[in-house]
TrEMBL record:
<feature type="transmembrane region" description="Helical">
    <location>
        <begin position="25"/>
        <end position="44"/>
    </location>
</feature>
<keyword id="KW-0808">Transferase</keyword>
<dbReference type="GO" id="GO:0005886">
    <property type="term" value="C:plasma membrane"/>
</dbReference>
<feature type="transmembrane region" description="Helical">
    <location>
        <begin position="167"/>
        <end position="186"/>
    </location>
</feature>
<keyword id="KW-0472">Membrane</keyword>
<protein>
    <submittedName>
        <fullName>Phosphatidate cytidylyltransferase</fullName>
        <ecNumber>2.7.7.41</ecNumber>
    </submittedName>
</protein>
<feature type="transmembrane region" description="Helical">
    <location>
        <begin position="132"/>
        <end position="155"/>
    </location>
</feature>
<keyword id="KW-0548">Nucleotidyltransferase</keyword>
<dbReference type="GO" id="GO:0009273">
    <property type="term" value="P:peptidoglycan-based cell wall biogenesis"/>
</dbReference>
<dbReference type="GO" id="GO:0004605">
    <property type="term" value="F:phosphatidate cytidylyltransferase activity"/>
</dbReference>
<feature type="transmembrane region" description="Helical">
    <location>
        <begin position="64"/>
        <end position="95"/>
    </location>
</feature>
<feature type="transmembrane region" description="Helical">
    <location>
        <begin position="198"/>
        <end position="218"/>
    </location>
</feature>
<keyword id="KW-1133">Transmembrane helix</keyword>
<dbReference type="Pfam" id="PF01148">
    <property type="entry name" value="CTP_transf_1"/>
</dbReference>
<keyword id="KW-0812">Transmembrane</keyword>
<feature type="transmembrane region" description="Helical">
    <location>
        <begin position="263"/>
        <end position="286"/>
    </location>
</feature>
<feature type="transmembrane region" description="Helical">
    <location>
        <begin position="239"/>
        <end position="257"/>
    </location>
</feature>
Amino acid sequence: MSLSTTSQQIIVEQAAAHLTPQASYIFVGVFAVLCFASIIGQWLKRKNGADNATIANLNARIYAWWLMTLVLLGAFWFGKIGTVVLFFLISFAALREFMTLVYRRRSDYYSMVVCFYLLLPVQYYFVYDGWYGMFSIFIPVYGFLILPIIASLSGQTAHFLERAAKTQWMAMICIFCLSHVPALMFLDMDGFDNSNNILLLIFLIGAVQVSDVLQYVWGKLIGGAKIMPSLSPSKTISGTIGGILSATAIAALMAPITPFSHIQAAVIGFIVCLMGFFGGLVMSAIKRDYGVKDWGNMIRGHGGMLDRVDSICFAAPVFFHITRYFWNG
């Protein structure tokens, strides 16, 4: 790893001091788990040799989780501004990966410019401003209309509908859906201190990411038939069911940091984990269509940015609107 375990501990503890007590405890707990995982990973590496592919993959994943946890912690340290900036950058990276994979025509250049330099910053401005009315319709309405208009101005009619649909899909997934994560910071909920809204992000990201990890773990432990081999060759029926149900139980345990009861947290956790699973399948279908395994190689051991947030892209809007509809003041 690029940082020693001691250095990582100092960074985590200093940053955690700027968070709410509940968030600090959660990050300290995550840090403890990562320390334990790092020790086990290094022990297995020494025992089995550095050339063991499975152990190398495990250590790469642990390194990636260290990196992602520290990035999240750094953003949460700066509160609302840090969270908006972080997910702005995540959306930018996701847009770049999506564009690199699906676009081949120079005639689509100006559509890409509109996505990067108009839709992306304006959408996140509405998030930061807390302007729900424009945040919720800007891309589904105005973005949906302006992108094919820009595409038509190129005068290129070949595959026009397909090209316009790709642009609209990219804007919806990479900008609109992901922007719902920092938008949680600006909700005003009955009986819940909005200075603790960061805990909603931790609940959402924690439930979805734990579900992904546990689906992998249960699949390796039990094995069995593949659930959708043409889309995701590594996912099994046992792994999917075990991972989602286990993550649902963990979501119920996280109820005290949310405005939800234990039963409500379990139901919401199940819904977002299920949406995350379907999101992974949909994004895998796009990759398989283009003959690639990963969206990119930004995160060692985890592929590209979209490989990490594909589940969150589908889970975040559903979680946001459930929370806003039933709990918003």
